[in-house]
Design a protein that fits this description.
Blueprint lengths: L8 E7 L7 H10 L6 E5 L20 H12 L2 E7 L7 H10 L12 E7 L6 H11 L3 E2 L6 E2 L13 H13 L9
Parallel strand pairs: 1-2, 1-3, 3-4, 4-5, 4-6
């Protein structure tokens, strides 16, 4: 019987920022750069394709952007959720996405999914706690990141992917998901 290649664990990165050049988006790309043998790190589709959550729209089939995001989350082994700090909480775009992903209640793609969050802001004002509470409420299996808040001061220009503070925080957040290292598995 031929030996099949080792399965790859897939971590999906949700960026709660809609702006292309946002620090949160830069951090998301730094997370994707952590891809390694046995662990694929991929960026979810932009959350700007989701309508505002309205239970009247939560039909079968789901709106196209919602269906696509649900499929991405379903196929992922874990989630790294990133959000800018907006008014002492997470971004509205991310909250909207999590509302959509928490449905259908009896078959949510977040149910039991390992997830950790990281907020990006000069002062978090407790946004990291809000994110963890929301993830837990959606049914995700949360693990707090060792460094749950990352200051934009850590990002120099558009170089988040090369910044030691950013890559360390992202590496620690991914490790908090307890993704098996293929070298030791």
């Amino acid at each position: 019987m031929p030996h099949s290649p080792a399965a790859r664990h897939r971590t999906l990165v949700l960026s709660g920022s809609l702006r292309a050049g946002a620090v949160t988006t830069q951090v998301a790309h730094a997370a994707v750069a952590q891809d390694r043998p046995g662990h694929e790190v991929v960026l979810a589709a932009s959350l700007d394709q989701l309508p505002l959550f309205n239970e009247d729209l939560d039909t079968e089939p789901a709106p196209p952007g919602v269906a696509a995001l649900r499929a991405q989350v379903s196929s992922a082994g874990s989630l790294l959720v990133l959000s800018p700090v907006n008014n002492a909480s997470i971004s509205a775009a991310l909250k909207n996405a999590l509302d959509w992903l928490s449905r259908p209640r009896d078959d949510s793609p977040l149910a039991g999914k390992p997830a950790t969050g990281l907020v990006i802001g000069y002062h978090s004002h407790g946004a990291e706690a809000h994110l963890e509470t929301i993830l837990r409420a959606t049914g995700a299996r949360t693990t707090p990141a060792p460094t749950p808040v990352l200051s934009p001061r850590a990002v120099t220009g558009n170089q988040a992917i090369q910044d030691l503070k950013v890559t360390t925080a992202v590496t620690q957040a991914l490790a908090a998901l307890h993704v098996p290292d293929p070298a030791t598995a």
